[in-house]
Design goal:
alpha+beta, disordered N terminus, 60s Ribosomal Protein L30, Chain: A, 4-stranded mixed β-sheet, 4 strands
């Protein structure tokens, strides 16, 4: 499949629906025929438009994928059918959403190779292509210890697709700032972080952030991979500092630690859960294998 941004559709709303359908079918212990029907029901619901980047609908894509997946598996379990050629048919999922097909890869090493072991985590609260840039800007901030007001020149080198996907120079909201390379560079330099607080409406309008992001020059470098970035600053006194990121934090090559993942959960949970409940959930997750019933975990969220 091509890069999921290229055709204007979004992975979380399209492939996410198919993945959720298969996952829900597995959890319901559906047989092969019903699983195939669940795939068809899920695929027929798939959607997700890149035009919605920066709006509330962008966050809706992933949630709707999970919802559609559970719905698809439940309907299939109750006898609702779909086309058995939903993936490879002339008007099937792979042909509608892609200009190229590699159908053999769908079943290659099935049951023997587990792609989940090649998945990473997102440490930062923005588009994943911005993560190496954030790492680089945090790194150069820590290395230089230079206040933003003392920077004369600030350059960030990224893969060309980063500029195409996140070329919002003047984000008017927190949601839009998640797709702004110069905003991500500015806040990560200033805060040495890239979490929820760095991509709020207030932060997008912060005068210090605006001033710094106007100074930052995001440059295309075809020699860099998508998980690489270089940040380079020159101070008003002429001193230069540079940081190169070979693999963004959260990738398989540079994984987040358990402590990193735990802190991300705590940051996200504190808006709606008490500290006590958050800690009980963390304990249950870290001891998932010892739970007699997964409902013990889900009930913690509902208390």
């Amino acid at each position: 499949m091509p890069n999921h941004h290229r055709g204007g559709w979004h992975l979380a709303g399209t492939l996410g629906t198919l993945a959720a359908s298969l996952g829900a079918a597995r959890m319901l212990s559906l047989d092969a025929q019903s699983t195939l029907m669940a795939m068809g029901i899920g695929c027929t619901q798939a959607a997700g438009m890149q035009q919605n980047r920066g709006s509330d609908c962008k966050s809706l894509h992933a949630g709707k994928s999970a919802y559609h997946g559970v719905l698809a598996a439940t309907l299939a379990a109750n006898g609702i059918n779909s086309s058995p050629e939903i993936l490879e048919g002339n008007l099937g999922f792979t042909r509608v959403y892609s200009t190229t097909q590699n159908l053999d890869s769908l079943t290659k090493e099935l049951g023997r190779e587990w792609l989940i072991t090649k998945n990473g985590y997102k440490p930062y609260s923005c588009g994943v292509v911005l993560h190496p840039l954030i790492d680089a800007c945090i790194g150069v901030s820590q290395k230089s210890q230079v206040p933003a007001t003392e920077i004369a020149k600030f350059e960030v080198f990224v893969h060309p697709d980063v500029i195409r996907i996140t070329g919002v120079d003047k984000p008017g909201s927190g949601l839009m700032s998640k797709f702004s390379a110069n905003h991500a560079a500015a806040v990560s330099y200033l805060d040495r972080a890239g979490g929820v607080p760095e991509f709020t409406n207030e932060k997008s309008q912060d005068p210090l952030v605006i001033s710094l992001r106007q100074l930052i020059s995001i440059k295309s470098s075809p020699q860099l991979n998508l998980d690489q970035a270089i940040a380079k600053i020159t101070t008003k006194s002429g001193t230069q500092f540079e940081i190169t990121i070979d693999h963004a934090k959260g990738t398989v090559q540079n994984p987040m630690s358990d402590a990193d993942i735990e802190q991300k959960f705590i940051q996200n949970a504190k808006a709606c859960l008490s500290n006590d409940k958050t800690q009980r959930i963390l304990s249950a997750v870290w001891n998932l294998e010892q739970l007699g019933d997964v409902n013990q975990l889900t009930r913690l969220y509902a208390e």
